[in-house]
Structures are given as C-alpha cells and as structure tokens.
Amino acid sequence: xxxxxxxxxxxxxxxxxxxxxxxxxxxxxxxxxxxxxxxxxxxxxxxxxxxxxxxxxxxxxxxxxxxxxxxxxxxxxxxxxxxxxxxxxxxxxxxxxxxxxxxxxxxxxxxxxxxxxxxxxxxxxxxxxxxxxxxxxxxxxxxxxxxxxxxxxxxxxxxxxxxxxxxxxxxxxxxxxxxxxxxxxxxxxxxxxxxxxxxxxxxxxxxxxxxxxxxxxxxxxxxxxxxxxxxxxxxxxxxxxxxxxxxxxxxxxxxxxxxxxxxxxxxxxxxxxxxxxxxxxxxxxxxxxxxxxxxxxxxxxxxxxxxxxxxxxxxxxxxxxxxxxxxxxxxxxxxxxxxxxxxxxxxxx
Length: 349
Fold this sequence. Notes:
By secondary structure, the protein is of the alpha/beta class. The protein folds into two domains: 16-171, Glucose-6-phosphate isomerase like protein, domain 1 (Rossmann fold, 3-Layer(aba) Sandwich), CATH 3.40.50.10490; 175-329, Glucose-6-phosphate isomerase like protein, domain 1 (Rossmann fold, 3-Layer(aba) Sandwich). The chain is built from twelve helices and nine strands. It has helices at residues 16-21, 23-36, 54-70, 103-115, 126-135, 152-165, 173-190, 198-204, 217-235, 277-292, 307-329, 337-348; strands spanning 48-51, 75-78, 92-97, 119-123, 139-141, 210-216, 240-244, 265-270, 297-300. Helix 8 (198-204) crosses helix 11 (307-329). 48% of the residues are buried.
C-alpha cells in the first residue's frame, strides 16, 4: 500500500516539502509518461550526450553513473553553450531543459541542428519545446510549474526509458518501482514526522559550519553533486564535495594545517556496499583521521538493492537534509533570488 505523507519542514510557504515527499510518485509518473511518449534512439550510437544546466542537467549525471555500471554506451553530460567537437551524426543527444528557455541549452541546441546531430528533447515547453515541434524532433513533454531541482524524476526517467528501450542500459519496470519504494522508505525515516531522524540531526547542527560531502566517485558522484546543489539552493548556503579516491591524492593534504576553515567542517560520508572495497577502506581511514581532528562525521546509506534505487534514495536523503537546514536557518527553500537576479543582469547585457 502506498503511503500519503504530509506536513511541512520549517518556513516553507511554497511547500517545497510536499514536492520532496511526492518524489516516489514522481518516479512512477515519469516512467509512465516516458512509456506513453517513447523516444527512439539508434541501436548503436557512438556516444550519448545529455545537454542541460542546473536542475535539468543533474538527471543526466544519474543516467551517466547508472550507464557506467549497467550500460553498453558511454553517456556524457554537457553543461554550457557549445558542443564538443567530437559530437557528430554518429552520436545522440538529449536536450533537457525543464523550462525550455535555458540560454545555454538553446545555444547548444541550435548548434546541434546545424551539425546534423540526432536529437531528442525533454522539456515542459518554452522555446525548446516549440523549436522541437517545429523541426519534428521527438520530445517528451513533462509537467511544468515546479522549480527544476524538484523535477529530478521528470527530467531523468524519460532519458532512462529511451536508453532502456534501445537496449543501451539494463533497466526494467521492476527496477523503477523498487526505486520509488526505496524513496518512500527514505521519506519515512527522514521526513517531517520521522523520529529518530539522522538527517535532521546532521542538518540542524550545521549553522556556522561548512557542510562537506565525501563519497566514492563511482557510483555516487551524482549524489554528492545533488546534495551540494540542494543545500546551495534550498538552504541558501555553501557546501563542498570531494570524491574518492581522487581526494586521497590532493585534498587530503589540505587537512594538515590548523585553520579556521578546517575547524568549521562538518562531514557527511555517503557509503554502502555498492562502492569498491578499496574506496570503502579509504573512506573509513579518512573518517578515523577526521574524528581524530575533532570533526563530526555522519555516515549515510541509501535504501534498496538495485543501483537506481540506491541513487535516487541517496539523492532524496540530500533533499531532506537541505530542507532541515533551511528550517534551522529560517529561510524559505523555494525562491532562488540570486539566480533570478543574475539572469536578469545577463538579459540586460
């Protein structure tokens, strides 16, 4: 039986909490929508690209990470105005813009058209949706009206579905349902009514400190980036991410000297048995060192057995962490005034 969870976390007049709690159903709805508007992808593209920015691009990172483990084609994410020179008619590109009006994505879209790159679109409309319709480019039209960061399922699952349909990634209906169920479990233990609540405890102790997220590059790179972005946007505060094993080849040295920055670090370690055993050992060794230096370290683990379930449930933990921190800081998680102001200045320049 599916649960309906309600309640708000902190000062949340636009009810970002409800959007986060609805993520399991968004997963199911996005998969159904993708099946009803299937996108055709060539059976053997040389490479697949996901083009987007911000909350519209992060889904591509999840696709990339999943494809590294369960795919037969390389997936890359392009954030910016230009396509790499290597993108050609033998590759395939998904253009993902929640609003359909992302400046950088539209520029890359036009370039892809000039270069004859096979394409598909995932958007709620805007200029990108209109251009795709005019040119006869396949598209999935997703529901609008949400901040892009609250649409991870809508922006990623149509890409997952297209690749699975083409036989380029191994992903089934059962995998998607497990991911939704895993996210329901996260909501039960991290949401408004959960007690005890490790995510809440970690987040509520963060004011005056720098949240730092460490995990293994494979497979949890996109999860760490997602945590950082959600803390940035929902809690309006800085966050730092570093990935193992690369961390052990440079950043670890930065911990040697006493500093005001080091003394304000509060660590979240994202770990489970999907991580390579040597990286798990590296994380454990560094955890011991951080504790020796007097830093608080909190370990988090995902729900589920399959990789999609673990990726999405780990991401949802970060969503809740950002909401609990926003509540502690007494900020509204929905507005992103800095982004809006910066876009306005760009439009005038």
